[in-house]
Predict the 3D structure of the following.
Amino acid sequence: MTVQPENRNSHVAPDLEGLQVPVGDVHPRERNPRHGKPDLIKTSLRAHGQYRPIVANRPTGEILAGNHTYQAALELGWSHIAVTWVDVDAEEATRISLVDNRLSELGSYDNEMLAELLGELPSLEATGFKQEDLDHLLKTLAPAGDASEQLGAIEYRLMVTCRDEHQQGEWLEKLQSEGLQVQALMV
């Protein structure tokens, strides 16, 4: 399958347009121990474009950070890519390449916030996450013995602050009449 090259600026965020170079001006790092996910990166590039530059060493044109983004851009038929240049020796180039990969690997998530953010989206398309990832995350966050875990369903909760016991009773009655399970709490 032949991919048609895209317009030079169509895939790059406006603030990165001045950083674009022909894809032939840079090349992948030969000794890159990191295996990436170019297919997922292609999905992201199609949906969001290039929103951050790759990093290359000016003396050699070798890509130090963003090798898989470069590979995905080539597979998409891009003729240009946004690059930030550094001017370093071979040892420093190796250190930059290693630390870029290692720091992303060592990072972690606030799982509750991650679940919340993913749950707010109408679709997980072009996020790098699948529905199974969200389901697994929600399952790990569910307290042991939680009814939602037992039923395999997601439980959505709502807290309403009332001004007094009377108003609380009215809301309980309204929500129960809508067929919702309602529990009164005093905080």
